[in-house]
Amino acid sequence: MRKTHLIPLIAALALFGCGQSEVKKVAEPKVASDVAITDSRPVYNVYFDINGIAPFVMADADNRPSGFGIDLVTAIGDKQGFRPNFIPHDFTGMLEDLGKGADMAVSAISITDERRALVDFTNSHFESSQALLVPEGSTITTVNDLKGKKVAVPEGSVGEDMLSQIQAGNGSIVRNPSIWAAVQQVMRKEVDAAFSDVAPLTYYANNYKDRKLRVIIDPSLPKDYYALAVAKGKPELLKKLNAGIEQVKADGTFDKIYQKWFKSSMPEQAAEASAAATAAK
Question: pTM of the entire structure?
Answer without folding.
Answer: 0.74
